[in-house]
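Incident log, structure service

09:12 report received: a user says their structure output differs between two submissions of the same chain.
09:20 pulled the input from the user's history:
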Amino acid sequence: MTRLTSIAVAVALLPFTAVAEPTGDAAAGEQNFRQCASCHGIASPDGEVIQRVSPTGPNLWGIVGRQAGAYEGYTRFSSAIVDAGEAGLVWNEETFVAYVNDPSGFLRELNDDPRARSNMNHRLRGSAEDIYAYLAQFGE
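09:34 re-ran on a clean worker, output below:
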């Protein structure tokens, strides 16, 4: 069974439960988000802008629990992340941290495809849990 299939099966078997509390420091994540802000923004559906939204990357409002590779109105996802999302990949702390530390490597392993690529070229080092905790504040 491929890792992507394994994740899809595991996600399908999970009961609907509350999202776990992030382990990182949201205040530190706010500071570290600067390295994300050139490509990503945070804006609520009602128009409140936390961080200016750039057309380069998708809006990160409500990323916790969102299907990977799916954001209404954003069309620049790689096929590898869309495929992973359609197979059940949802953003939680574990998947977010693994992805932002090595986007293409994560997708290659997950999709069992050595040619899989992410459109996100930047790799975070050491602050992913904090950025996740920061982003977890914004959403439903």
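09:41 both user submissions now match this output. Likely a transient worker issue. Closing.
09:42 reviewer note: Strands lie at 42-43, 49-51. The longest helix spans residues 3-13.
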